[in-house]
Amino acid sequence: MAHNGRLPQRITAVLVYGRLPLVFGGMICAVAVMWNQSPMLYMLGVVLLFISMTFDLVDGWFAARFHPHPQMAQLADRILDKLIYSIIFPLVAVGCMWRLHYVLPDPKKTELLHAVLVLFLAITVLVRDNFAHFMRSVALRFDQELEYREFTRLRTIVAAPVGALLYAYAFYIPNGEPSLVYRWIARLGEAPLRTLFFIEIVFLVINFSSIAGYIRKYGTLCLDDLCLGNVQLRRRILAFFPNALTVMNAMMGLLAVFFAYQDRIREASLLLIGAALFDKLDGAVARRLGLTEPLPGQHPEPRKITLGGVLDDISDAVSFCIAPAWIYYFLVSDLRDPRLQELPYALAAVFYALAGIARLTYFTLDRHPIPGFFKGMPSPAAALLVVAPMIILNQAVNEASTSVPFWGMVCFGMMIAAAVMMNLYPIRYLHAGRFMSRHPWFGRATLLLLISAFTPFYGYCFLFFMALYALSPLVTWRIDPQDASRETRSKTARAH
Length: 496
Known about the structure:
By secondary structure, this protein is mainly α. Helix content is 76%, strand content 1%. It has a two-stranded antiparallel sheet with strand order 1-2. Helix 1 packs parallel to helix 4, helix 4 runs parallel beside helix 6 and helix 10 runs antiparallel to helix 11.
């Protein structure tokens, strides 16, 4: 019976501690591949990395049940995570640079851009790990109990597969052995750059979200330790976080334009959804941190222009005004249908961008805002509304459908209509982000839209969802502004 009791401990020890030799072996194989370009060593390195990935996905579950020392096993698991990611991600960054010089005969700018993105990804992973270690050390100084929930750590679950995928891509050797294993691995080595870009961007967002989670959990303790009661210093440090989310909003808009230029309208729409999410988060974080309230002893000032507000307006202009206009212009200018080419689509794109900037200017200068409502359609909603029919149009073009002229006309009309609706200031649009915060069921229901992204009906679902919001003032105008401005549910609703 004692022997049977020690078996789970041995399995856990193999899973937890066996990853480091596997990754180290993969590193040796990668160095050898860069030296002599051996397909066999490349295949061996990829197999070692995938075995290590499998161990990484299940070792947390075993480590949590490592009796009689579960905390020691958890600590060893985290230390090994830090060591392994410190090896694998710098390694794949070097591998992507090596691939540019020795594998690709004529590298393009997009391939160089991808290698630079992998370098930034490696830096982000290492910064996140060191930041997490710092925040945990601060929490321990304040006698805070650390939580160990392996399967809720989405970043850790995703990191190992992304590292293995990038390893298979970076050190790929063409014309290898004609075996089944090599043919399967070659599919990863020949993965399209657009797919890799999308996976890496999602992984970057997950890493930043992980950093935000640590800040939310232990940030107050850290600030108490750093600021020593200095309220001004505390506020300046806190202002960094909503501003960083605002910059991510602009980055998502620029990436959406890049994907649209590559004829990937579906991915561009998902990035604009990400930009809208960051736009929601930066305001929510600023309000949650108390940055929108005056300091103690100061009188509230009427909506003055601040650096954060200007930065937010610039990011919104990039992501929700300029980016959709560029995407529309790129999409329609490549169409050969004479009916669509006769339309003044360039003027429509310019008109939409200028109308969006005018709407943002009015929102900044408005001295009498309505709590919980927007005057005119908000620019994020307008951007998503005009992108929705573009998804259907792009799909119709790829399928050589006869509906291309119809959806081209719909896109043109939607650009004009959205530009007008953004500047119809007497019409009040509900703050959708706060509505989701008060009604979590509505936020969960919107996940169905993201699930539909993997189906041919994504564009139609997207358009239907945004059309409902465009018509929502017919119903939501009755909601009390004080109720619409709340970030959370009422206590009565929670009790029920």
